Each structure stands twice: as C-alpha cells, then as structure tokens.
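FIELD: query
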Amino acid sequence: MNFKIVSLARPGALLAINLLFLMVWGFAGFSKLASGMPGWFGDKFGKTFLGSFPGVNASFWILAIAELLGFALAATALVQGEFMGRRPLAWLTTMLVWSLFVFLQLSFGLWLTADYNGTAQQFMYFGVTLVALQFVLGAGGGGRGSEERMR
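FIELD: result
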C-alpha cells in the first residue's frame, strides 16, 4: 500500500501543478477577453512609458495574449497526459518557463507604477514557479538528462 501511495505522489503533484497554472492563466486571460481593458488600466499605466510604447491598449492585449498562451500550454500538457509520466514533460516545462516571463511582465508593470507590494507578490509567484519548475525537471533523472527527456 505504501508503494502505491508513493508511486501516485509524483503524478499527483504534477497534475496539481498543471491544474493550478491552467486555472491561473485561464481565469486571467479569459476574463480579459470577456471584459476588455478596464478603465483603471489606462489611468494606472498611461502615465508610464507604456503609455507611449507600445501603448496602454497594446500593453493590455499583449498581457492577455501572454496569459492565454500560458493557458494553452497548460491545457496541452494536461491533454497530453504528461503528469502520468508516460511522456516527456515538454509542454508542462515550457508552460512553467513561459509563466516566469509572464510574472516578470506583470512585476515590471507594477514596479513602473511604484506598486511595490504588488511587485513583491509577483516576486513570490515567480519564486514558487521556479520551485515548481525544479520539481518538474528534478525527478525522473533530473540534472543533465532532463534536457534529453524534453526532446
């Protein structure tokens, strides 16, 4: 019985990571699609250089697309069943790396507006994503062989 629980631990943790990011990027991206750019977004970011380049409207939709891409990567990993350990963790790994860049983008915007509490929260999300990425890459051989499993 202990063997069965232990053997389910890694797939269960991978599934939980996959579902968490599926929810994070799904809710964030699809709510932006459904609601469009909120009024406060222009007020908050229009005074920064994002108001000039690439523009507040473009910045909002770039962020929405980045979040939706994160959702698509997480959905692909889930549909491929990567969490079950029968396939390389290529989509899940790619989604986690992509998530780092989305959190970086979010953190940058908050830093530009001097929202340091929000920036600190994004830093935590970034750090926890790194931990999840290490978990995904670490087990099943980890180290130098992990790149081989992604091919």
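FIELD: remark
Residues 2-150 form one domain.
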